[in-house]
Specification:
With 752 residues, this protein is an alpha+beta fold. Helix content is 62%, strand content 12%. The protein is built from 19 helices and 16 strands. α9 runs antiparallel to α14.
């Protein structure tokens, strides 16, 4: 397998970044904070995806840690070569794995399904191991030192390589799985037990209990029959007691019913009398009028109209009074206007001003003369410029249409404006000015009085125009409306009073209150009349016919009634209990009769014993096979460590360590021999542990993978000294001949 390139859409601090990874040995040397660990984790996430991200601490939650800092899409793509073909996987991450999307494409950019439907488990398909095993072998994060042994996934993979030549399936594991399934089918390991032998044991125990019960069947049947006979006698006694109680209760209830009927009749009579008194009181209010047929709709309409007219009457009177005041003002202004017109005419005669009678005063005639405006020098220049623009626009209209049209339009507008400017104009002059010019003498005081009188006359005429037209006709129409309204109010008041006089009112000062009282009295009369009719019908139904009673009703009969009722309830409860017990005994007798025959149970027990013996022999054979197979698997486990141990010792020797003193236990935990004793790697320095951990990972890669994977090394030599670091750099160059390596560091001394 080989990486070709990757594109990061959004992952941590990277946004829309692309990297070329096609070189056999790619070295990325940058300062701290550039994003080397982020790039390494991005490549791992493209292969295995992101976990659920449930941890709150961001250091242990990759989904929260690498969410794009600037926002936007979360994910990217990785182009790689596998099996001689080129592929590209694209992943988009959401808030949870349920929202993650994975797609894989081939070299023709077409969707590819060589690694599953959506390639979400691409790393497991490529490397045949889970994400944890991948991080302990191919992927070496910065500063991570692991000496806690191999994962179960790595152990299974090594065993598979050893026993089946690298095939994916393990024959020993399959056999153990089948033996476990067969063992569970015979003997269950967890409750509830569901193995065949467990079911047989449970059934045999049940049969043994049933066969023991069969011996007590006859005794139980005799005891039950004796109890049934006793229950029959008790039931007969209870039935006799119930019959006696029912007879007494019927007699007492007849007496009690008579007393209740008498009380109900007296109460109904009292209610009837009270309602009759209320109805008589209301009848005195209505007099000769029948309330049942009384209809107040017409009266309500008349009262409503009456008060509506009363409300409008005040407004109309105020409006009519205002119109009369306006009419008086109008007449005064008209009189003043006539006096001013006469005075103005006398002034005009004295001044020699000719006036014309327009019916409302005099108006002066005006004269005018025609004036030719003076010529100006600017007019010539504007005319010359307009002619020049018109000529230029006409020339350019064939070549530059828009420019030519604009210049031609400006020239024509200028010529037209100057033409209007030089035209002669007629100026109007007033007759007074002509008279002043022609008159040899002027009387200034008389002219001033004339002007003042004229202005005052104009003000009075403006005030007259403010009055509404046809003021007198409107005032006469409003007066007629007032008279008509007064006549209608008188007619309505007369009709309302005539209607209300039929009833007995204490005081009639408000027709609306009287109408409300009348309606309330009418509704009350109808309601009481209906209640009275109902009470009368109830009285007719409660009339007693003196029933036949053997014993007259007395208060002590109530005591005997309660006692008899209690005795009846006690007898009924006792009878119900006896009947229920009788049914249970009958069911038990039937059950014991069915269990009396034990031949079928004995035959079933014999067959189950034979089946149990046969299955127990098979179970012992299965357990023996599991024991021998587990022993053989343990012996094989000591062999799969040989290639890993030899490889780790070899690389450790190359890097200057003592490889011959390194040993591993069955779980892959490394130990170092020191003074004849084996010490755990945790007792040594960080540099020693990092050196052994690096060699162990390279040895695991050599042993696990037939097709070389891509090694991702995120500054793995942080704790090594200078000499060992130089040896490690040389080793990386040698490994680059067999593996594609992506090496990242932040120090110049550790760069290749």
């Amino acid at each position: 397998m080989k990486f070709v390139s990757c594109h990061i859409t959004g992952f941590g601090k990277f946004v829309n970044c692309s990297f070329d990874l096609s070189s056999p040995l790619s070295v990325i040397k940058n300062d701290n904070g550039w994003g080397k660990t982020t790039l390494a984790d991005f490549l791992r996430c493209m292969l295995y995806g992101l976990d659920g991200g449930r941890l709150r601490a961001i250091e242990g939650n990759d989904r929260a840690r690498y969410e794009p800092w600037q926002g936007g899409a979360f994910g990217g793509s990785l182009t790689f070569q596998y099996g001689g073909k080129l592929y590209r996987i694209e992943r988009t991450f959401g808030k949870t794995p349920a929202y993650d999307v994975s797609k894989i494409f081939d070299e023709n950019n077409m969707p590819c399904y060589d690694f599953g439907e959506n390639a979400d488990k691409l790393g497991e398909i490529l490397f045949q191991m889970n994400a944890d095993s991948y991080k302990r072998s191919v992927y070496i994060p910065q500063g991570e030192i692991r000496a806690d042994g191999f994962t179960d996934d790595i152990k299974t993979r090594l065993l598979s390589l050893l026993s089946t030549g690298g095939k994916e399936e393990n024959g020993a594991d399959r056999a153990l799985a089948k033996l476990d399934a067969a063992d569970k089918a015979l003997r269950g390991k967890r409750r509830p037990l569901s193995g065949k032998l467990d079911v047989i044991d449970e059934r045999l125990q049940d049969l043994s209990q049933k066969l023991a019960d069969c011996k007590r069947v006859e005794e139980q049947k005799n005891s039950l029959q004796t109890e049934l006979q006793s229950l029959s006698g008790e039931l007969q006694r209870c039935n006799a007691t119930l019959a006696e109680c029912n007879e007494n209760l019927e007699r007492i209830s007849r007496q009690k019913e008579r007393a209740l009927q008498e009380d109900s009749y007296r109460e109904a009579q009292n209610r009837f009398s009270s309602l009759q008194m209320q109805l008589n009181g209301l009848q005195s209010f209505f007099g000769a009028v029948d309330p049942a047929s009384l209809n107040t709709e017409g009266l309500r309409a008349a009262v409503t109209e009456y008060y509506a007219l009363k409300g409008d009457e005040k407004k109309q009177e105020e409006f009519l009074q205002a119109m009369e005041e306006d009419w008086k003002d109008y007449l005064a202004l008209k009189k003043e206007e006539e006096g001013l017109e006469k005075l103005l005419s006398s002034y005009a005669v004295a001044l020699g001003i000719q006036t014309e009678n327009t019916g409302a005063g005099t108006r002066r005639k005006e004269k005018g003369e025609l004036v030719v405006p003076k010529k100006r020098k600017s007019t010539k220049w504007i005319i010359a410029l307009s002619l020049a623009l018109s000529v230029v626009g006409g020339v350019l209209i064939d070549t530059l249409l828009v420019v030519g049209l604009c210049l031609l339009g400006l020239g024509l507008v200028g010529l037209f404006a100057m033409f209007l400017r030089v035209l002669p104009k007629r100026v109007r002059t007033s007759a007074q000015e002509n008279a002043q010019e022609n008159a040899p003498f002027r009387n200034e005081e008389l002219e001033r009085n004339y002007a003042e009188t004229k202005n005052e006359l104009l003000k009075i005429r403006a005030s007259l125009q403010a009055f509404p037209p046809q003021l007198q006709e409107s005032m006469q129409a409003e007066t007629q409306k007032k008279e008509s309204r007064s006549a209608r109010l008188a007619a309505l008041e007369k009709g309302i009073c005539a209607f209300l006089n039929n009833f007995t009112f204490q005081e009639t000062y408000d027709y609306r209150a009287s109408l409300t009282l009348l309606e309330e009295k009418t509704a009350a009369y109808k309601h009481i009349a209906s209640l009275l009719q109902a009470e009368k019908e109830k009285l007719d139904g409660l009339k007693l016919s003196s029933p036949d009673l053997d014993v007259p009703f007395a208060p002590r009969s109530l005591e005997s009634f309660e006692a008899c009722k209690a005795r009846k309830e006690k007898a009924e409860a006792e009878k119900a209990a006896l009947s229920r017990r009788q049914g249970e005994l009958l069911a038990d007798v039937k059950t014991w009769e069915e269990r009396a025959d034990g031949s079928a149970l004995l035959a079933e027990e014999s067959w189950l014993q034979e089946e149990k013996s046969r299955l127990e022999k098979r179970h012992r054979a299965i357990l023996a096979a599991k024991k021998y197979l587990l022993k053989a698997k343990e012996n094989m486990a000591s062999r799969y460590l040989d290639p890993v141990s030899r490889g780790c010792q070899y690389y450790l020797t190359i890097l200057g360590g003592e490889g011959d003193k390194l040993r591993f236990n069955a779980d892959g935990v490394p130990f170092c021999e020191e003074d004849g004793r084996f010490r755990s790697l945790g007792a040594y320095s960080a540099g020693k542990k990092e050196l052994v951990s690096f060699c162990l990972r390279i040895a695991l890669v050599d042993a696990l993978f037939r097709e070389p994977p891509v090694l991702i090394l995120d500054d793995p030599f942080v704790n090594l000294d200078d000499k060992t670091t130089e040896q490690a750099k040389k080793l990386l160059k040698e490994l680059a001949k067999r593996y594609q390596i992506l090496y990242m560091t932040c120090k110049k001394e550790r760069a290749l």
